[in-house]
Design brief:
Helix content is 48%, strand content 0%. By secondary structure, it is an all-alpha fold. It comes from Eriolarynx australis.
Length: 117
């Protein structure tokens, strides 16, 4: 949807803490909370809460919280960014031109990515 910026859409949306151990493991594998100690991150779920309220709230009329995260994880699995970059010779720990990174990403996307540091 290019008609609006998709963040902070539904300020009345609530986040429901994930309690299912399988869902926690799946989510942590793909969406780790690196800012926090593992157990603290799993307990508080600050990152997941932030991401859902900031971005997931934009589709909350169509995708409830669990569906939002399931879809995000499927997209991450389908479009493995590190594999895409490595396939174009771009590897972590080195310096590259922004144009090279954008071209690599565009091999699996339609639009020029919006990259920010």
């Amino acid at each position: 949807n290019n008609s609006r910026v998709l963040y902070d859409c539904n300020t009345k949306e609530r986040y429901f803490k994930i309690t299912d151990p399988k869902k926690i493991t799946e989510r942590d594998k793909r969406w780790p909370q690196l800012r926090y100690d593992y157990f603290f991150g799993i307990d508080k779920q600050y990152l997941w809460k932030h991401e859902f309220l900031k971005h997931g709230s934009c589709g909350s009329s169509r995708y409830k919280q669990q569906a939002y995260f399931d879809l995000a994880m499927k997209l991450k699995d389908r479009f493995d960014l590190l594999r895409t970059l490595r396939g174009r010779g771009i590897n972590p720990g080195s310096t590259y031109d922004l144009d090279d990174i954008e071209r690599a990403i565009m091999t699996v996307s339609i639009k020029v990515p919006s990259l920010k540091c």
